[in-house]
Amino acid sequence: MALKTFPIERQRKLEEKLVRRLVEGTAAWLTFKQATSARTLYSEHFLYPPLFEIGFGRGWKAVAQVPVTKATPRAGAPKTLDFVFFKNSKSSTAAVMIEVKFLRACLENHG
Question: Is the model's pTM score more than 0.85?
Answer without folding.
Answer: no
